[in-house]
Design goal:
By secondary structure, the protein is α+β, with helices and mostly antiparallel strands. It is built from ten helices and 39 strands. It has an eight-stranded mixed beta sheet with strand order 32-33-35-34-36-37-38-39, with helices on both faces. Strands 3, 4, 5, 6 and 7 form a five-stranded antiparallel beta sheet that branches. Strand 5 and strand 6 form a beta hairpin.
């Protein structure tokens, strides 16, 4: 089918003397009939194309098999019960169970699958009161960042009358007396629920059993409309902290004694990050990259004019986070993008480097001060999350729960390689493939990356990627600058005026894979989501000759207007803003939407987005797809897949994840000329 006839408007903006056309500005109106008609027409064209791919059904069948394994979360003790999430394999949302012991048979406590008929209502977060009597959960509909906080009485399993609305980027932080909780919310939006800019977040305290209208305003800053604020109460009930940030990096810590009226600045911002860890004996423990690119653990007294002290010094490896449990501190490190964990006492003395059972990504080591056993999860590219029990005293790990999967892990291997970027920077990349792979330059290859916002890409299990590898494909994950795999210096080398380094790193990864005979340009696909969607879009328009298929998902494609929608303003600390002349110049040079050129043959492209994405509004993808369709000079298809009743990705039901992966990989195989072959049972 031909592409829809997309009207081109006459909108032109002037940025410091540079005239920039925006012919598809009308697609930004997500409530207009014209936009709805365009979305419907594009989806018809896309579905028509995908429906003709002969192996689409076989891919869906195999993905369903690979997804269908039990997934169990880490157990946590609250009151007299142990709680954990579990998914029997294909449930749209994981279910919260509980038992009298972590080993005991569980009883169903909260099933989010019953909150909607199609599984599109998800839990955005769960927190328990200190006494375990109440459970507050955030309810997110259709993938939106807006959540509603509800409260369950754990003794009866019934909902209380408490209901908090217009909450975003916040859950419930319980007061130590279990009588209520703190949360962050915005005023009810007057228009554009899923697209209007969010301003003036405020911190409130909600007392159980009272209406939201009676909630106490704890903190607000009328002088700064574009800041985030969140409350953090100390466990002993003596101190209350507010974490303030102006975007996705850089924070400031405010504090006061409970009962006092005014907060004071404890750790001034916003040129460094502060992660609160523990408040103990009137001292705050926090991890920070202030004067420490790889981060370190500090503490500061809360009485008088205290001076920060080093608890755990900066190391050559990056400190990812610190937890407090069992009377000790557990420091999680990244060493070449692989997890390492060390146990310390509160004086910063090393107890032991923990001997992990395998290479991969580790999460857990959380609990209460009196716990003698803790739990952690470990996963990698060829193994789903496996749970282990850790003895705090001896340091011994024992297997707790391992999933039963529908594939043979021994068929696959992951190697870590290092390659040189354009400026000579050494960049790591994980490469997963079949053990019988041959380096002949003919293998299908999928290159994935993110490259921003201090986000680290560490080994993790992805059923759809494993299906691709099973078919003889090579799945590659590059650790580009912009993340913090090597500390804040690595992050800063890929942000603001240095953002082009990220694209250079990704392009160099593709060139390395071709030069080393892993693949070739006509067998190479690139994929990324959100900031990774920006990555794919920018690299597609900069080097359209290098790839056969481009798969940008929920990407930030219009770099000149991203900050005008929902929470986009918070990314200006990472990207810069077109409102500033110096920053406009370098943003405009790489903005994917604005660097598409007529007469160029672009790779086969499947743009993916969702109608309820209020993080990166779908207008980014709409405008990018429309412009690419208009300018495409080659024969490769340019399609857009617009999911309904879905958002940026968090909480997306299993059924929609399988649907999306089916279409993405069907499009990929179809456009590299390699058909999918069903796996022999």
């Amino acid at each position: 089918m031909p592409y829809p006839d997309t009207a081109r408007g006459e909108v032109v903006d002037d940025y410091f003397g540079t005239k920039v056309a925006d012919p598809y500005r009308w697609l930004e109106d997500d409530n207009s009939e014209a936009t709805a008609a365009w979305v419907a027409a594009e989806n018809v064209v896309t579905e028509d194309y995908l429906s003709q791919i002969p192996f689409r059904g076989a891919i869906r069948e195999r993905l369903t098999e690979l997804w269908n394994y039990p997934k169990t979360g880490l157990p946590a003790r609250h009151g007299d019960w142990w709680y954990w999430f579990h998914n029997d394999g294909l449930q749209n949302q994981s279910v919260l169970y509980r038992a009298a012991s972590p080993d005991g048979p569980g009883e169903l406590f909260l099933d989010p699958n019953t909150l909607s008929d199609d599984g599109t209502v998800a839990l955005g977060g769960v927190s328990f009161s200190e006494d375990g009597r109440y459970c507050a959960y955030s309810e997110a509909a259709s993938g939106s960042d807006w959540v509603k906080i509800r409260v369950l009485d754990t003794a009866t399993g019934t909902l209380t009358s408490d209901c908090i609305e217009w909450v975003k980027f916040s859950g419930a932080a319980w007061s130590p007396d279990s009588r209520g909780f703190y949360y962050s919310a915005y005023d009810a939006p007057k228009e554009g629920i899923y697209s209007a800019q969010n301003q003036f977040q405020k911190v409130y305290y909600h007392a159980l059993g009272t209406p939201q209208s009676a909630d106490v305003l704890v903190y607000a800053d009328p002088a700064h409309s574009l800041r985030y604020f969140s409350a953090w109460p100390s466990d002993d009930g003596k101190w209350l902290f507010v974490v303030a940030s102006e975007g996705t990096s850089g924070s400031e810590i405010l504090c006061k004694r409970v009962g006092e009226k005014k907060f004071r600045v404890l750790l001034p911002g916003f040129d460094a990050d502060y992660e609160l860890v523990e408040c103990k004996d009137d001292a705050l423990y926090y991890a920070t990259n202030h004067d420490a690119s790889n981060r370190r653990l500090m503490k500061i007294g809360l009485r008088g004019a205290a001076v920060p002290e080093v608890v755990i010094a900066e190391q050559e490896r990056q400190l990812q986070g610190v937890s407090s449990a069992g009377g000790y501190l557990f420091a999680a490190y990244l060493q070449d993008a692989q997890s390492k964990v060390a146990q310390y006492d509160f004086e910063g003395r090393l107890v032991r480097e923990i001997d992990l059972p395998a290479i991969g990504t580790v999460g857990g080591f959380a609990g209460e001060d009196d716990d003698t056993e803790l739990y952690y999860a470990l996963s990698n590219y060829t193994s789903p999350s496996t749970l282990y029990r850790y003895d705090v005293g001896s340091g011994a790990s024992t297997l707790f729960k391992a999933p039963d999967v529908q594939f043979d892990p021994s068929m696959f291997v992951t190697e870590q390689v290092f390659y040189a970027s354009k400026d000579g920077t050494r960049v790591p990349m994980f490469v997963t493939h079949r053990r019988d792979m041959k380096l002949n330059g003919k293998n299908p290859c999928l290159l994935y990356a993110y490259g921003g916002f201090q986000i680290n890409l560490t080994p993790g299990f992805n059923p759809s990627a494993l299906m691709f590898v099973e078919q003889g494909g090579i799945y590659c994950v590059a650790n580009l600058r912009g993340g913090s795999e090597y500390g804040e210096a690595w992050h800063k080398a890929g942000m603001l005026e240095n953002k082009q380094n990220v694209f250079d790193d990704f392009i160099a990864a593709a060139e390395y894979l071709i030069a080393e005979k892993y693949t070739s340009s006509d067998r190479l696909a690139i994929n990324g989501g959100s900031n990774g969607g920006l990555l794919v879009g920018a690299c597609e328009v900069q080097r359209p000759d290098l790839y056969a298929v481009c798969l940008p998902a929920v990407g930030v494609m219009d770099m000149l207007r991203y900050h005008k929608f929902t929470c986009g303003w918070g990314w200006a600390v990472e990207y810069g803003s077109s409102d500033k002349e110096e920053q406009f110049s370098y943003i405009y040079n790489y903005s994917p939407l604005h660097n598409i050129k007529e007469g160029v043959s672009y790779p086969a492209t499947l743009v993916m987005t969702a109608d309820h994405d209020d993080r990166v509004v779908p207008a980014h993808s709409f405008k990018f797809a429309a412009e690419l369709q208009h300018c495409q000079a080659g024969d490769a298809p340019v399609l857009i897949r617009i999911e309904t009743n879905a958002g940026h990705g968090a909480g997306k039901p299993t059924s929609k994840r399988i649907d999306e992966a089916t279409d993405m990989y069907s499009f990929l195989f179809q456009n590299i000329g390699v058909p999918y072959r069903p796996v022999k049972k």
